[in-house]
């Protein structure tokens, strides 16, 4: 916890330096107002009812309107100059029996923590309150407002509980309560019996906020099923009005200008490249005009290359034959007789096999 106030409890000539902490807190699920279509948060502007302008917080003052219709404007400086005798002090006024404090007067509760140097006087005050079964009525200034409060002990801790001023409690003005109603003894006995049947010791931990539990279960079910969306980005803030606006037309205009600028740069680069290459193209075109038709010059060259390739292919077998003949001449043995000799050897090898086959047949 974080201390929200520092001061001292003063009773008689004794001062007890303490720190003040909030003792309670709400358990509600924080829900925001959002736009159903896009999930944007709903904002509220502080707009002047006279000029219609959005007013900054620093320009806002407090005002009081009299019964005659006149307005009294109070600035922060005016309020800061008001005297607060109990600004940093919890001043004990009296000690009263606990049962005399009407619970309807009880407001917010705070814990008092003693400083390291005030442990003993803190314990002394705590023991005195418990032994006497009384509450200490005090006055204290919190958030620039003086309040009435009581000091009481709870679980070995001194608690400060602010009280409403008497004129802040409304009267129950219900005329029907003044009507005479007759209650029969039998009805009263039955009601008393019902009270006794439901009698018990109060234990707040036995109660549960069923609505809050159902709300948390609903949120958890939506999260588990994926029924969520991304939190939308906050719109740009307009400094002139202090509000949040989205100028779609201006955004589109900037996008168009940016796209045009990008295309213009690319076109300029293309034109420069074209201008750089054009002289070379013109030079080649001029050379072609001087030599004649470039296409006519290239086609005969291709034909000559094709004929040369075909001639080389036709001459290749003849060259190979001439090479073999030349080699045979160098060895002194013609190529044709070598083939006939090979055939004769093959026939001689087959004769014994044929003779053996005829003998087996006979």
TrEMBL record:
GO terms for molecular function: double-stranded DNA binding. The keyword rRNA-binding does not apply. SUPFAM superfamilies: SPOC domain-like. The keyword Calcium does not apply. Residues 52-180 form the Ku domain. Signal peptide: none annotated. Keywords: DNA damage, DNA recombination, DNA repair, DNA-binding. GO terms for biological process: DNA recombination; double-strand break repair via nonhomologous end joining. Residues 260-362 are annotated as: Disordered. It comes from the Bacteria. NCBIfam families: Ku_bact. Belongs to the prokaryotic Ku family. With LigD forms a non-homologous end joining (NHEJ) DNA repair enzyme, which repairs dsDNA breaks with reduced fidelity. Binds linear dsDNA with 5'- and 3'- overhangs but not closed circular dsDNA nor ssDNA. Recruits and stimulates the ligase activity of LigD. Homodimer. Interacts with LigD. HAMAP family: Prokaryotic_Ku. This is Non-homologous end joining protein Ku. The lineage of its organism: Bacteria, Bacillati, Actinomycetota, Actinomycetes, Micrococcales. The gene is ku.
């Amino acid at each position: 916890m974080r201390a929200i106030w520092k001061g001292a409890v003063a009773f008689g000539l004794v001062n007890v330096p303490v720190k003040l902490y909030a003792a309670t807190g709400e358990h509600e699920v924080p829900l925001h107002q959002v736009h159903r279509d896009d999930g944007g948060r709903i904002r509220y502007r502080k707009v002047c009812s006279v000029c219609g302008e959005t007013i900054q917080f620093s320009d806002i003052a407090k005002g009081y309107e009299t019964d005659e219709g006149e307005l009294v404007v109070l600035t922060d400086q005016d309020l800061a100059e008001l005297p607060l005798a109990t600004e940093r002090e919890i001043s004990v006024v009296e000690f009263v029996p606990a049962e005399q404090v009407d619970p309807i007067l009880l407001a917010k509760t705070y814990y008092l923590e003693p400083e390291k140097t005030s442990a003993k006087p803190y314990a002394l005050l705590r023991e005195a309150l418990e032994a006497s079964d009384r509450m200490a009525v005090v006055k204290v200034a919190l958030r620039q407002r003086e309040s009435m409060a009581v000091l009481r002990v709870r679980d070995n801790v001194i608690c400060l509980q602010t009280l409403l001023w008497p004129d802040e409690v409304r009267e129950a003005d219900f005329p029907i309560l003044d009507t005479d109603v007759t209650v029969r003894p039998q009805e009263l006995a039955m009601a008393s019996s019902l009270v006794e049947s439901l009698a018990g010791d109060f234990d707040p931990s036995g109660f549960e906020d069923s609505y809050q539990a159902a709300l948390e279960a609903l949120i958890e079910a939506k999260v588990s099923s994926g029924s969520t969306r991304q939190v939308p980005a906050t719109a740009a803030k307009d400094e002139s009005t202090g509000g949040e606006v989205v100028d779609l037309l201006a955004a589109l205009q900037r996008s168009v200008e940016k796209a045009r600028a990008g295309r213009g740069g690319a076109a300029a680069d293309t034109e420069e490249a074209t201008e750089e290459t054009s002289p070379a193209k013109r030079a080649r075109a001029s050379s072609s005009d001087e030599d004649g038709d470039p296409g006519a010059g290239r086609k005969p060259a291709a034909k000559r290359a094709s004929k040369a390739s075909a001639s080389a292919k036709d001459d290749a077998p003849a060259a190979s034959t001439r090479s073999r003949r030349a080699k045979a001449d160098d060895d002194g043995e013609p190529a044709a007789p070598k083939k006939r000799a090979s055939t004769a050897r093959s026939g001689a090898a087959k004769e014994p096999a044929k003779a053996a086959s005829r003998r087996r047949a006979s």
